[in-house]
Specification:
Structural class: alpha/beta
Number of strands: 14
Number of domains: 2
Distance between the termini: 35 Å
CATH topology of the largest domain: Rossmann fold
Largest sheet: 6 strands, mixed
Radius of gyration: 20 Å
CATH architecture of the largest domain: 3-Layer(aba) Sandwich
Keywords: Hydrolase
CATH superfamily of the largest domain: L-asparaginase, N-terminal domain
Family: Belongs to the asparaginase 1 family.
Pfam families: Asparaginase, Asparaginase_C
CATH class of the largest domain: Alpha Beta
Strand content: 15-25%
Protein name: Asparaginase
Low-confidence stretches: none
Helix content: 25-40%
GO molecular function: asparaginase activity
Order of helices and strands: EEEHEHEHEHEEEEEHEHEHEH
Length: 297
């Protein structure tokens, strides 16, 4: 049995260029060679990106590659090395379509490969061990010695080694996996609310397939922004309300034109414990596969 490591770029594969800027340069083979694993590993490269450039096209590709790899009965699990900025979103994208008992594990690094004390090798070695030994836990992230589920994952540190945590007090239940469908071309922006926000951003939106509203508190926006969102809902545009608060659940409790209770009565859906980024992935997956978005939130 072997573990397959898929490299997509990120800090774990980065070194400094002549100007001192970090750019992905290491291949999957080089990453595996540097981590000191004793497991039998195959390594493949699919991208060399900063994860801020990981679009839906790349997510579609990664989903397809993972699915093809797991058709091989000699593969015990898959590891994806990935940048940390959008790792939580990609992890959920994989988790929503993952029905295999074998694990898919994402990992990365906060320090580049040419740092005097890089954290990538230990993270990758631990992720390979998790991929070789874990069963029936869906897609997980192994980082800084911790193994966390994809659902509810949030990056909460810009530079600290232990960069990830969960938004809720417990492991969230996973919905039943849906068949994968292409996400590329699904248009779902995220708009963040602020105190006293007007309706300009909502009214300026081009044609969209859905909207994620990163609201305040437990899911509230200003009255003027709420009235603009209500117009979208009446036109049949699906809207998911997340929160800019790092921890805790969105709950529709407040009235008024921008209150969560009012928006919910018009059809808006609460994101629960999902961040705005993860809510966008869940809504895109629902729209692409034709399932009720509520079932994936």
């Amino acid at each position: 049995m072997s573990v397959v490591v898929i490299s997509s770029g990120g800090t774990i594969a980065s070194t400094k260029d002549a100007r001192g800027a970090l750019v992905p340069t290491l291949s999957a083979d080089e990453l595996v060679a540097s981590c000191g694993t004793t497991r039998h590993v195959r390594a493949i490269d699919i991208a060399s990106l900063d994860s801020s450039s990981m679009g839906l096209r790349e997510v579609d590709l990664l989903r397809a590659v993972v699915r093809d790899l797991l058709r091989d009965g000699d593969v015990s699990g898959v590891v994806v090395t990935h940048g940390t900025d959008s790792m939580a979103e990609t992890a959920l994208a994989l988790d929503l379509v993952h029905s295999d008992r074998r694990p898919v594990v994402l990992t990365g690094a906060m320090r580049p490969a040419d740092h005097p004390n890089p954290d990538g090798p230990a993270n990758l070695r631990g992720a390979i061990e998790a991929a070789a030994t874990t069963h029936s836990r869906g897609v997980i992230v192994h980082f800084a010695g911790a193994t966390l589920p994809a659902r509810g994952l949030l990056k909460t540190q810009t530079t600290a080694e232990d960069a990830f945590t969960l938004t809720g007090p417990r492991v969230l239940p996973r919905p039943m996996a849906v068949p994968p469908a292409p996400l590329e071309g699904v248009r779902i922006p995220i708009i963040r609310a602020w105190a006293g926000a007007d309706d300009a951003l909502i009214n300026a939106l081009p044609p969209i397939d859905g909207l994620v509203l990163e609201a305040l508190g437990s899911g509230n926006v200003s009255a003027e922004m709420g009235e603009a969102v209500a117009k979208l809902l009446r036109r049949g545009v699906p809207v998911v309300v997340a929160t800019s608060v790092p921890y805790g659940e969105v709950s529709f409790a407040y009235g008024g034109a921008g209150g969560g209770s009012t928006l919910g009565s018009l059809g808006a859906l609460p994101a629960g414990y999902l961040s705005a980024g993860q809510a966008r992935i869940a809504l895109a997956t629902a729209l692409a596969t034709g399932v009720n978005p509520r079932s994936l939130l």
